[in-house]
Amino acid sequence: MKPTTDNRQPAINLQRDKQRQPDKRIGITTTIPIEVIYAAGAVPVDLNNIFITGSDPQAMVEQAEFEGYPRNICAWIKGIYSTALQQNIKKIVAVTQGDCSNTCALMETLAVKGLEVIPFAYPYDADYDLLSLQIEKLMIRFGVGWNEVREAKACLDDIRARVHRIDQLTWENDRVGGFDNHYYQVSCSDMNADPGAFRRQCDDFLKQAEAVQPHREELRLAYVGVPPIVSDIYQYLEGMGARVVYNEVQRQFSFPRPVDDLVEQYRRFTYPYGIFRRLEDIKLEIARRHVDAVIHYTQSFCFRQIEDLILQQELNIPILALEGENPGPLDARSRLRIDSFIEMLRGRERHK
Fold first, then answer.
1. pTM for this structure?
2. Residue-wise pLDDT tens digits, 27-61
3. By C-alpha distance, which of 237, 247, 97 is closest to 186?
4. CATH architecture label of 18-146
5. Where are the domains of the chain?
């Protein structure tokens, strides 16, 4: 889908009928069918994004630990918990299947604090009928029908098309850096809680990106795995002469394979459905984008670390497994491992 070039607003107001939801802000723990929430006149708020872009995300982690969260629990979960309370979120849609295995306990601790928790589950095998049932249950919960949801989808797809263009400028035209590619794609999880403003931000960025000189980094990398909790990985890699041209999970948040059917759209969303569905996309994009190597990022204490065993077997390309724990810059050990990995890749290039 190609983005339109005019600056007119979408055909419907995605924040209309505000009186239908006493508290418009609905927290979400990962990408869900936000079309339903916007159709209801409410606003989805991705608590991950609020947490990691806050003034002191480490304080959010420590606050959860102070209240009793164990140290050996993912920092994202602790950050979501504290952020939901700090932001005074009243309702939260939590993905109970297809995301973090600790989300159910997170829901329970937030329920104790008085939040209304709405569960949403992606079926493990991406069964169409089961996924359709989950979406329809969400629609009933928010009091909207298919016509309203489809209207919201059309408007959001118009924004997503702009983000797809940003991704294209990253890998095909070399005019966008790894962090900007990450930022615009990960923001699609909730459209930064303001679709109109995000649409304009995308348009402004596209105008700038179309005009810049192409990047000249010698190594092209794929970033595979959940978005990083560390703050400077993209900048550090580019300082080493390597650029991320494929952000796997973040790209999925933008739904890069457009389709009219909303249920099918969320079936094609690879992130919730296990490593083998993700591998299909990873292999295709590594080849299409002429990627030299993979950074496989995992979060400390996350079950997804086990998936590195499968990636190492399935991908015929150098892979660096990198682990992050708390918010902040890369630690010395991670920087050293990246340095060694990049030097190894350069050595391979010289001997070709």
1. 0.92
2. 999 999 999 999 999 999 999 999 999 999 999 99
3. 247
4. 3-Layer(aba) Sandwich (3.40)
5. 18-146
